[in-house]
Specification:
Layout (H helix, E strand, L loop, with lengths): L2 H36 L8 H9 L10 H16 L18 H24 L10 H10 L11 H20 L12 H23 L4 E4 L18 E4 L6 H25 L1 H6 L3 H13 L21 H24 L2
Antiparallel strand pairs: 1-2
Length: 340
C-alpha cells in the first residue's frame, strides 16, 4: 500500500469515528432535552369544561355524578397521555432514568384506585345489598393492575380498558332513559371516601415530615387500654426518610394532591345539595385551597432538604404543611357530614 493510501485510510477511519461521536453527542443531548420536557408536571384542568367534553359524544347533559366520574376519567387519561406518556414502566431512555414523574404518577394512581373503589362500592350503590355496576366491576380491578408492567400485558392496556368502562358508566348515568346505572350523592358515601383520602394524606404528611428525621413518641395503641399489637415496640421511635427517597416522596405527594384537588372540585359540584344541607361548603372550599397551594411551581432544579429552621429551605416540610392542613380540614368536614 502506498503512503497516500495509508493516510487516506487513516483519515477515513478518523472521520468515521468523529461522525459517530458527533451523532452520539446529538442523540445524548436530544435525550436529555426530551427528559427535561417529559419531567414537567401536568397542568390542572377545568371540571365543568372537562365534563362537557366527556359527554359531548353522547349528547347527554351533566347529572349528579357526571363531574366526579369525568374527573376520574381525565386524571387517569392524564397518566397515559401527558408528554412522554406513562413513564413508570419505561425500559428505554429518557423514561428509564427519570424518577420524579413516575413517583408523581404513583401518587395520582393511588387516588384513582381509591376513587374507583369508592365508585364501585359506595357511590354507585343505594345500599350494601344492592348489585354492583357491571362497568365498575371491571374498571376498579383494572386500575389495581401492576403499575410497572412493560409487556404481557402492558400496564397502559389495562388502564385503557378501565377508562373505557368508566366512559360507559358515565354515558349510562347521564342517560335519562337508563335507570340501571346510578350515582348516589349522599353524606355517608362521601364520608366513606373522605376517610380513605384522610388516611392517605396523613401517611404522606408523616413521610414528608420525616425528611429531617424526628424522634416520635409511640402512640400506636394510645386511647385504648386493652389494645395490643403483634410485636413489642419502643416507646420512642426515630423516623427519617432515606436521603435518596426524599424527592420520591415529595413528587408522590405532588401527584396525590393534584388528583385529590380535581376530585374534590368535582365533588363540590355533584354534592352541592348535601354540602349546603350540612353547612360544609366553606370547609370543602378551604381543603381545595390548601391543595391548590401545594401545586405551586417549584423553582429549584432539585428538591432541597434543609433543616427546619436552617439557612436553606426544605421543600418536603413546606409540602407537609399544606398536606397536613388539608388533612385536618378533611377530618372537620367528615364531622360535619356525620351531623344530622
Amino acid at each position: 500500500m502506498g503512503e497516500g493510501g495509508f493516510f487516506k485510510e487513516k483519515f477515513s477511519g478518523q472521520s468515521l469515528r468523529n461522525i459517530l461521536l458527533t451523532v452520539f453527542g446529538f442523540v445524548l443531548i436530544f435525550i436529555l432535552l426530551l427528559g427535561f420536557y417529559w419531567s414537567n408536571e401536568p397542568n390542572p384542568f377545568d371540571i365543568s369544561q372537562n365534563t362537557a367534553q366527556k359527554l359531548a359524544a353522547s349528547g347527554h347533559q351533566a347529572v349528579v355524578g357526571s363531574n366526579t366520574t369525568a374527573a376520574l376519567i381525565n386524571v387517569a387519561e392524564t397518566l397515559l397521555d401527558k408528554p412522554g406518556g406513562y413513564l413508570t414502566n419505561d425500559v428505554f431512555p429518557p423514561g428509564l432514568y427519570l424518577d420524579n414523574i413516575p413517583n408523581w404518577e404513583y401518587g395520582a394512581l393511588v387516588q384513582v384506585r381509591d376513587l374507583s373503589r369508592a365508585l364501585r362500592e359506595n357511590f354507585s350503590r343505594s345500599q350494601s345489598q344492592s348489585t354492583e355496576d357491571p362497568d365498575l366491576v371491571i374498571a376498579e380491578p383494572n386500575f389495581s393492575f401492576n403499575n410497572d408492567s412493560w409487556l404481557f400485558p402492558p400496564t397502559e392496556l389495562e388502564y385503557r380498558e378501565a377508562i373505557d368502562h368508566l366512559y360507559s358508566y358515565l354515558e349510562r348515568i347521564s342517560d335519562p332513559l337508563n335507570q340501571d346505572a346510578q350515582f348516589f350523592a349522599r353524606a355517608d358515601n362521601l364520608s366513606t371516601w373522605l376517610l380513605s383520602v384522610e388516611s392517605r394524606l396523613g401517611s404522606l404528611s408523616q413521610r414528608l415530615s420525616a425528611s429531617v428525621g424526628q424522634a416520635r413518641i409511640n402512640t400506636d395503641t394510645s386511647g385504648d387500654p386493652a389494645a395490643t399489637q403483634s410485636t413489642p415496640a419502643r416507646s420512642e421511635l426515630t423516623v427519617r426518610t432515606p436521603r435518596f427517597q426524599i424527592d420520591d416522596v415529595f413528587y408522590e405527594a405532588r401527584g396525590a394532591t393534584w388528583a385529590i384537588m380535581h376530585f374534590l372540585r368535582a365533588i363540590e359540584l355533584d354534592f352541592r345539595q348535601v354540602l349546603e344541607d350540612k353547612n360544609a361548603t366553606a370547609s370543602l372550599s378551604q381543603i381545595i385551597r390548601e391543595l391548590e397551594a401545594s401545586q405551586r411551581t417549584v423553582f429549584s432544579p432539585i428538591i432541597l432538604n434543609g433543616s427546619g429552621f436552617g439557612m436553606f429551605p426544605n421543600h418536603s416540610l413546606t409540602m407537609a404543611n399544606y398536606v397536613s392542613r388539608a388533612n385536618a380540614a378533611i377530618i372537620d368536614l367528615r364531622n360535619l357530614l356525620a351531623q344530622g
